[in-house]
């Protein structure tokens, strides 16, 4: 397994093999909490307008996301684990529009053979998926802020997964302490806070969930994220191909 690390939207657009799109603060984390709250699938979109158009066409859909870290007008939820974790999303389709993560998924779909969405909260499940599948090339795409500026939490998450796959020890407590004192954390704390402070810990809750978020095409032609894992279909290596399928 050749593990590459790419950065930002430009890196996601050039991803090779299996792409792991990483957005810790907060898109991939929020997507995982939405699935844990019962969402059946998540439809990532590139713009707020696309998300609202899907909502208009399908009033039963739930829309969550952000621009400038804040919930856009007309959305049901922001891009916030705190907002979404106690919602009842049982069986719902959730439309997700963010500045970096959801755009990264769509970009990676153009070049990669397989696309996963990851944060610290589903890191080990994602690692297990990769070990079971053993793709020749894995691209870890750290999305950064708005897909344009590097963010330490995304780079550290990519390195954490790379270390796990290569048998190198990690220290999550050190990562939490370091990230707490970076510009990325300013949105959570003090006078500069614009999002729930509790999101910080929720996004850094290592292995809170045991499922993978995998992108594919829906029957309607949408890109959609579906959860694979215990309770969502067990990850099982195919005896002949080494592939992974939900059973």
Automatic annotation (TrEMBL):
Protein keywords: Hydrolase, Magnesium
Entries under Pfam families matching the protein: 2-ph_phosp (PF04029)
E.C. no: 3.1.3.71
Cofactor(s) needed: Mg(2+)
Top-level division of the source organism's lineage: Bacteria
Entries under SUPFAM superfamilies matching the protein: ComB-like (SSF142823)
Gene Ontology MF terms: 2-phosphosulfolactate phosphatase activity; magnesium ion binding; sulfopyruvate decarboxylase activity
Main enzyme class: hydrolase
Catalytic activity, as annotated: (2R)-O-phospho-3-sulfolactate + H2O = (2R)-3-sulfolactate + phosphate
InterPro entries documented for this protein: ComB-like (IPR005238), ComB-like_sf (IPR036702)
Annotated PANTHER family: 2-PHOSPHOSULFOLACTATE PHOSPHATASE-RELATED
Protein family per UniProt: Belongs to the ComB family.
Name this protein carries in UniProt: Probable 2-phosphosulfolactate phosphatase
Lineage: Bacteria, Pseudomonadati, Thermodesulfobacteriota, Desulfovibrionia, Desulfovibrionales
């Amino acid at each position: 397994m050749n593990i590459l690390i790419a950065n930002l939207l430009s890196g996601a657009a050039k991803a090779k093999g299996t792409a792991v799109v990483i957005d810790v603060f907060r898109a991939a984390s929020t997507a995982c909490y939405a699935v844990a709250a019962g969402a059946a699938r998540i439809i990532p979109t590139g713009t707020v307008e696309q998300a609202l158009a899907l909502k208009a066409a399908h009033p039963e859909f739930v829309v969550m996301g952000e621009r400038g870290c804040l919930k856009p007008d007309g959305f049901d939820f922001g891009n916030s684990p705190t907002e979404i974790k106690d919602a009842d999303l049982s069986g719902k389709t959730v439309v997700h529009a963010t500045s970096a993560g959801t755009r990264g998924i769509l970009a990676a779909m153009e070049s990669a053979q397989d696309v996963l969405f990851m944060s610290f909260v589903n890191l080990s499940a994602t690692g297990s998926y990769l070990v079971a599948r053993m793709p020749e090339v894995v691209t870890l795409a750290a999305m950064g802020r708005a897909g344009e500026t590097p963010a330490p939490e995304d780079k550290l998450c990519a390195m954490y997964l790379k270390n796990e796959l290569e048998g190198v020890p990690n220290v999550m407590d050190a990562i939490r302490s370091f990230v707490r004192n970076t510009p990325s954390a300013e949105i959570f704390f003090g006078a500069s806070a614009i999002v729930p402070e509790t999101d910080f810990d929720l996004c850094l809750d290592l292995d809170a969930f045991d499922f993978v978020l995998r992108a594919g095409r829906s029957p309607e032609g949408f890109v959609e994220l579906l959860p694979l894992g215990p309770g969502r279909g067990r990850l099982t290596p195919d005896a002949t191909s080494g592939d992974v399928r939900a059973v």
